[in-house]
Amino acid sequence: MRVLVVDDERNIRTTLRMCLEGLGCEVREAPTAEAALAALAQGPADLAFVDLRLGTASGLDLLPRLLAESPTLDVVLITAYATFDTAVEAVKRGARDYLPKPFTPAQIRHLVEKARAHRELSSQLGNLEGQLAQSVPEATLETASPAMHAALALVTRAAASDAAVLLRGESGTGKGVLARALHSMSARRRRPFVTVNCPTLSEQLLSSELFGHVRGAFTGAVRDQPGRVEQAEGGTLFLDEVAEMSPALQAQLLRFLQEKQFERLGEGRTRRADVRVVAATNRDLEKDVAAGHFREDLLYRLNVIEVKLPSLRERREDILPLARRFVAFFARTAQRPPPELSPATEKMLLAYPWPGNVRELRNALERAIIMWPAEVLEPQAFPERIAAATGSGVALGGPHTLEEVEREHILRVMASVPTLDEAAHILGIDASTLWRKRKKYESAPG
Q1: Residues in the chain with pLDDT < 50?
Q2: Cα–Cα distance for residue pair 140/13, rounded to 1 Å
């Protein structure tokens, strides 16, 4: 840690230097505001201790100047004149912490450890984003949206604890990506991250999936099988769409959250597991509680830390950056130069409401890269539902053939879900029929 100490009293600077060097820090001193800025100009710092009163100058006034010079600097304001109003003002101006005089070496150690932890988490967040962006383009954590920034900040703080986290947001907003990011930033990152997709299994199978079963517990149980809870030992268990659990399974999950205990299906032995639970839902759980579909006590257990993910239409400033990232990713996959987005296409992408959120945007760009060979992506490269929503395309009741309407509906459903099987289920046809229709309808651009 590179630390800058800004105080007009030599004995305070000396005391802080001794404490900080004892903690392995590299320390620079500055008696005035101008000396502090000059020190930063010579080289960056990670942490700064800044006195509130610097002779005739104010440490509060110095704060924004320091952060303008070094935006990633963590600043701790120190003062013998501690008041609540001063603390609030310091935080407003960018201070990370506030330390009243006289202080002890233990307090300095605590602040240095906090700053180290914060910088480590920020570094991990950047590394994680780079790794994920190579294989999952929608996993980028860069955003210009204040609402998304707030969600990411909450996740970063939550990562330092073992508290249960509930991720809320519409389908396709990236709850699974954020759950994995949370795990990767936590102390459990070297242990497993295990996902359970709650809506895909029956009550009995989901119970077995979660807690395991013993031989003979049900038809087809030919051997003992540990569940996902045991597989996630020491790590994170992600429960996707947790609102779909049956009442009986909700009771089992509640007991596990309260006591960290469970039994495999068909077994009397009680087992324990050290697992951090992260859950996600696109439902209004308070309404489900009021309707008797979801346990109120389970909601409280899952919702220790709540993170709300904005829909894509609520973060329109991210649409074009995401679109360009998808274009670059899928062009690289298709081994072709990345095409540009025409002005008309950019206008269309910004106007469309994206009911399927980031997932729908991803699917639309993947299809465009595959089906449109030109060097510029025009609106005709996209599914007609997108063009229709912005004034040019197939609309019900318009002058279109049944085949055009069927084509539009099929492509729209396929873009809103992640798999061919799910789309076939929604459309009420088998997957092989849908595959043939998709091949027919995607044989030409538009």
Answers
A1: 129-130, 133, 135, 392, 444-446
A2: 42
